[in-house]
Design a protein that fits this description.
It is a single chain. The protein has a two-stranded antiparallel ribbon with strand order 1-2. The protein starts with a helix and ends in a 13-residue tail after the last helix. The chain has helices at 2-9, 12-28, 32-35, 37-43, 66-77, 84-93, 96-121, 135-142, 146-180, 184-200, 202-231, 236-248, 250-253, 262-277, 283-287, 296-326, 329-333, 339-351, 353-392, 400-420, 424-447; strands spanning 124-125, 131-132. It is globular. The longest helix is centred in the C-terminal third of the chain and has 40 residues, at 353-392. It is built from 21 helices and 2 strands. Helix content is 75%, strand content 1%. It has one domain: Up-down Bundle (Amino acid/polyamine transporter I), CATH 1.20.1740.
Length: 460
Amino acid sequence: MIHRLHGLVWGPCLLFLMLGIGICLTLRSGFFQIRGFSRWWKATAGSLFRENEKNTERISENSMGRIQAACTALAATVGTGNIAGVATALTAGGPGAIFWMWVSALIGMMTAYGETWLGIRYRKKRKDGRWFSGPCAYLAEGLHAPRLALVYGLLCLMASLGMGSMVQSNAISQTLRFSLGLPVLVSGILITLLAVGTAAGGVRRIARIAGQLIPFGAAVYTLFSLAVLWISRERLPLVLGEIVRCAFCPKAAAGGVGGYGILQAFRYGIARGVFSNEAGLGTLAGLHGAAENTTAHEQGMWAMFEVFFDTIFICTLTALVILCCTGGAAGLAGSPYDGASLAGWCFRSILGKWGEYLVSGSMILFAFATIIAWYFLGRQTLGAVLNLAGRKFPGLRRFEERIEKIYLFLYGYAVFLGCVCSLTAVWELSDIWNGLMAFPNILALFLLRGKIQFIDEGKP
């Protein structure tokens, strides 16, 4: 039943809607992700190296700086999907899946811009200094559909307790068990204490730790991936050519060995791209909602960068490493490995035991960063839900602090359960909540598309 529902939610309809809204915004922007590359790159990654970067601006206790918000959003998106998800896409859809992953990322960059722009445009600061932001804000204030905003918020909370906590903690505990032989009960206690301790420190602590984990983890993973590709550099031209050929004529490119179809390559490439960068789900808008001293245009460009970095850069590194090490489509078809184990085998075959430790360490860092970032997203969404419900039941606001403590307890419990339980059903349920979140978000993006602007007009 769950599997069938998963297939219905993540069927061709949702993928068509996600691609459709991304194409719509791409056309409205005049292909800004390509045409304006130098502009959004200088405003994001390029701004990190400028001496006049505003790192000392005053930021309230419940808010983040614009770069801190970007790092937290990256923490939520750069996770197990960048390693295990890419490997699964390759084994199921062949090398051509990577081409369609690139396509989904390029289109998704404008979707991410649109939802983040709307999130900043329609956000409001509450009396307690927190922001009412994200999809809940533009559904309620922009689309004037508070009930739909409430539905989105509840789905996001359920997703945070599944995909954001249980799935990620399970990946960490299984990695520690296979790599170091650490019992899942021990890893569960350690991970839960670390996650809850970080989350209990509030927005500032989450932003600080996410801002340290993601740059460090990404730098190490990039360095070792480039080392593998340098050693295997003679295979790179063949691999790149095979990615393009398999996207349109997979059986011919694979010599009939893999039996991949164009539909399979397209489906898994698009789906894994969306799963990895989350463009279209509205989560990026929620994660950027607490950024101060910024504009809607600026945070929108940061969201574009996050999709680019997550999918086009990190996922591509993983894909090229796997294809170079396995020998392409024919090697993938005969490989006994899948998911993270396939990636681990590839790094180990070139770099030895250190390669396996690299993948394990990267999985742990990425997954833990995702756990704390999704808690922040969940807490932001919980505040939005209580704000919406409080309009109907004003007395509910008196219990907000208690409800947040209950949510922290539930989140910690979900992290622990993820470490010690088998998560076959949880994976699919989490995917279902994620997919259902997309429908109201895409509807809002479509109906509010005329409001989205692609030039900076000052602070909203």
